[in-house]
């Protein structure tokens, strides 16, 4: 399905019925296939919307600046138009940043957040690595840099690597560069404020490589619950859904207030 927001066609899937509501948000270079295992699983429990960010998948890919704030606006628009109310927002990587942005700006909107290996409050070591990635994405060897980023993000045992590489390479260079450029300013200027403003339950599931200062996150957001996937790189929604889905189930049963 598609809906136009300010002239930009946004692609999404919607499925299921019931009191629980879900919003799934892929990360940079992804598309809605990154949450296909979760859509199949959670649409049996409630109504689920699996969004494709502008610039990604089958959504429009205009030449413009891309930002966490802009993506968040698109997601709230889609939910409002599809009557998705009080969703549990599940975001992988940068999708988790958007979940926090939404929770801070629209405190009554979500019922809870699940962040899958999101780069929130980056460790100090990430700056140099990410600056190198951005330089490579801007260059003539764009496709090689994309493959390097995906390889660095995956474990050698990850079965999803080829698929992830395919979705990254299908994302235009101008989209990846602009979005990547916005990530560190958001982390510096908004992440702390958003974490502090969040009032709903939050689950953070970490993969193999640490991308967040979880101790600092917990100080800012005392309701934070953390977990770690076993044997998965960054794209854990695809790689180990048999671990991720039950963790989300348990989080909902213990911490998220059900409708009614």
Automatic annotation (TrEMBL):
Indicate the segments forming the AB hydrolase-1 domain, all copies: 22-150
GO MF entries: hydrolase activity
Q: Print the keywords alphabetically.
A: Hydrolase
On the tree of life, the source organism's domain of life is: Bacteria
Q: Which InterPro entries match?
A: AB_hydrolase_1, AB_hydrolase_fold, AB_hydrolase_sf
A Pfam family recorded for this sequence? Abhydrolase_1
- The protein in question is named Alpha/beta hydrolase
């Amino acid at each position: 399905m598609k809906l136009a927001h300010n002239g930009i066609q946004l692609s999404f899937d919607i499925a299921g019925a019931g009191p629980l509501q879900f919003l799934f948000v892929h990360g940079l270079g992804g598309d809605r296939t990154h949450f296909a295992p979760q859509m199949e699983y959670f649409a049996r429990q409630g109504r689920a919307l699996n969004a494709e960010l502008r610039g990604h998948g089958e959504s429009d890919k205009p030449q413009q600046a891309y930002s966490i704030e802009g993506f968040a606006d698109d997601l709230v628009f889609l939910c409002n138009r599809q009557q998705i109310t009080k969703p549990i927002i599940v975001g992988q990587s940068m999708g988790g940043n958007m979940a926090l942005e939404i929770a801070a700006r629209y405190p009554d909107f979500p019922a809870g957040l699940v962040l899958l290996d999101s780069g929130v409050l980056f460790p100090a070591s990430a700056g140099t690595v990410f600056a190198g990635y951005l330089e490579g994405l801007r260059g003539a060897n764009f496709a090689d840099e994309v493959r390097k980023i995906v390889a660095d993000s995956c474990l050698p045992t990850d079965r999803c690597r080829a698929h992830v590489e395919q979705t990254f390479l299908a994302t235009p260079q101008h989209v990846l560069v602009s979005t990547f450029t916005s990530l560190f300013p958001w982390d510096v200027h908004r992440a702390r404020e958003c974490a502090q403003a969040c009032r709903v339950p939050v689950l953070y599931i970490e993969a193999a490589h640490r991308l967040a200062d979880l101790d600092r996150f917990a100080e800012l957001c005392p309701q934070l619950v953390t977990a770690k996937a076993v044997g998965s790189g960054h794209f854990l929604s695809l790689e180990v859904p048999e671990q991720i889905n039950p963790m989300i189930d348990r989080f909902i049963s213990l911490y998220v207030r059900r409708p009614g």
